[in-house]
Design a protein that fits this description.
Number of helices: 15
Helix content: 55-70%
Order of helices and strands: HEEHHEEHHEHHHHHHHHHH
CATH architecture of the largest domain: 2-Layer Sandwich
Strand content: 5-15%
Low-confidence stretches: none
Shape: elongated
Distance between the termini: 59 Å
Number of strands: 5
Mean pLDDT: 90
């Protein structure tokens, strides 16, 4: 029998999470808790590190007040508590905190939206994942352009910088290529899903998108920038990479000032 990639790790993570719920601190609140397996995410291409997984535990703020002091204080103060060991990263959120982050459109909010949409509920009597999933998909009316614009401008400036790099000066090139590939990969994901994954899942997610498919060779070379041949191809391909970005963004925002004149827009004073 063939075991799907990550199946053993997922089973280990579920068992680990359930054992946490059974501890004296959490057991009395079990009915109202939501436990999500975040890493590895539920995507077909995932090939996780067999030693790493991450879970989120979500609790109502009112119920967090009944927890022991060492758990109660950070949750009431910050709305989040992070614990980790050699096996797992275990993050506890209050419902208020996770809803507040999901309401935003910054990088962390977009990453959380993606993680929620690709999470596996391990324990969720109240079916909270459905509410959170709906919130993760919902964006304010003007949000898509506000998300796409800075990524487009970042890709433009980073690609322009990369074109001027000497392949024999790897330090500056590594920074520029990382910024360019990161901006393009996030842009590719946002254009299709309205959000993007955390850094560890960014490349494999991006290459599944329309823009990622157009730029598969360039993104692959950018990921191997320490190889001189790949570095040279990455630099040589900057112009084509920029045209690919423009081609995908144009149908949505081709008439905007920031699309037509990214250099000018980037020099506007902040508002």
């Amino acid at each position: 029998m063939t075991i799907e990639p990550g199946a053993a790790l997922r089973a280990q993570a579920r068992d680990w999470g359930r054992s946490r719920l059974a501890t004296p601190a959490w057991a009395p609140l079990e009915h109202g808790l939501t436990l999500l397996l975040i890493d590895p995410p539920t995507v077909e291409w995932v090939a996780p590190d067999p030693s790493a997984f991450a879970l989120w535990l979500i609790v109502e703020t009112s119920e967090a007040r009944s927890l022991p002091l060492e758990l109660r204080e950070p949750l009431i103060r910050d709305g989040v508590l992070l614990d980790h060991d050699d096996e797992a990263v275990f993050t506890v959120f209050t419902v208020d905190r996770i809803e507040a982050v999901l309401a935003g459109i910054g990088r962390r909010a977009l990453e959380m939206r993606w993680s929620i949409r690709h999470a596996e509920p391990v324990h969720d009597v109240l079916r909270r994942i459905e509410t959170l999933g709906a919130a993760a998909e919902r964006l304010p009316e003007d949000a898509p352009e506000r998300i796409v614009r800075p990524l487009y401008l970042q890709a433009h400036s980073a690609l322009r910088a990369l074109r001027s790099i000497d392949v024999e000066q790897p330090g500056g090139g590594a920074i520029a290529v990382g910024e360019a590939a990161g901006a393009i990969s996030r842009l590719a994901c946002v254009l299709e899903e309205g959000n993007h994954p955390p850094a560890q899942w960014l490349f494999p997610t991006a290459v599944e998108t329309e823009l990622g498919q157009r730029m598969a060779s360039w993104l692959s070379d950018s990921a191997r920038y320490s190889d001189e041949g790949a570095a040279q191809r990455t630099i040589n391909g900057c112009e084509a990479a920029w045209h690919a970005v423009q081609a995908v963004v144009h149908p949505l925002y081709g008439s905007t000032a920031w699309f037509l004149s990214p250099d000018v827009w980037a020099l506007r004073p902040p508002r």
